[in-house]
Design brief:
Layout (H helix, E strand, L loop, with lengths): L1 H28 L11 E5 L4 H4 L14 E11 L4 E5 L8 E3 L3 E3 L19 E3 L2 E3 L2 E10 L2 E8 L8 E4 L7 H9 L5
InterPro entries: Chromo-like_dom_sf, Chromo/chromo_shadow_dom, Chromo_domain
Organism: Panaeolus cyanescens
Pfam families: Chromo
């Protein structure tokens, strides 16, 4: 009985030594997490958000999807869990991501690359309110409260597409065009 107990203890010790050795050799190749601070601008990996970038026919090839989108502003950092929380203004996904899903955004240097600057359009004043223009309606879906439309804004990339209620898009020419082409959406 004493021999069995000693053999079990020796096996546990050998497993512990093996775990320590494996961790040591695995960590030699790992690099530290990048350090982000509140207010930094980052790009977000699109690997797990492919559905957002598909068009309504589903004919767009995945190889043409952007690998990163953004930039987004960091609103909270948690170095103990290697996560950052981002300000995602036009999205309804959970805004906290692991550090391996984001990378630091390096803005364009206009002196080196003068034609790469992306101009973000300013809102226009319509009836006393500041509004952006709808480029087109991409998709629709039914919900308990009615129909929602996936809106592509004029001058913005696909990462800024937004689901909006039909009542918020009343008297919009883009909705009329979409309904003409997709009669099942009405």
């Amino acid at each position: 009985m004493k021999d069995i107990f000693l053999n079990v203890q020796e096996a546990k010790d050998n497993l512990q030594v093996s775990k320590i050795s494996q961790a040591y050799h695995a960590n030699k190749k790992r690099r530290d997490d990048p350090l982000f601070a509140v207010g930094d601008w980052v790009l977000l990996n699109t690997k797990n958000r492919v559905r957002i970038f598909k068009n309504n026919e589903g004919k767009r090839a995945a190889k043409w999807f952007p690998v990163f989108d953004g930039p987004y502003k960091v609103t909270h950092c948690n170095p103990s869990s290697s996560t950052v929380t981002l300000d995602l203004p036009f999205s309804n996904i959970f805004p906290t991501f692991h550090c391996d899903r984001v990378k630091k955004f390096i803005p364009n240097d206009d002196s080196l690359y003068p034609h790469r600057a992306q101009v973000v359009p300013e809102p226009m004043e319509v009836d006393g309110e500041m509004e952006y223009f709808v480029d087109k309606i991409i998709d629709h879906r039914k919900s308990r409260r009615g129909t929602k439309y996936l809106v592509k804004w004029t001058g913005f990339g696909e990462d800024h597409n937004e689901w909006m209620d039909a009542k918020d898009l009343a008297e919009n020419e883009a909705v009329d065009i979409y309904l003409r082409d997709h009669p099942d959406a009405a």
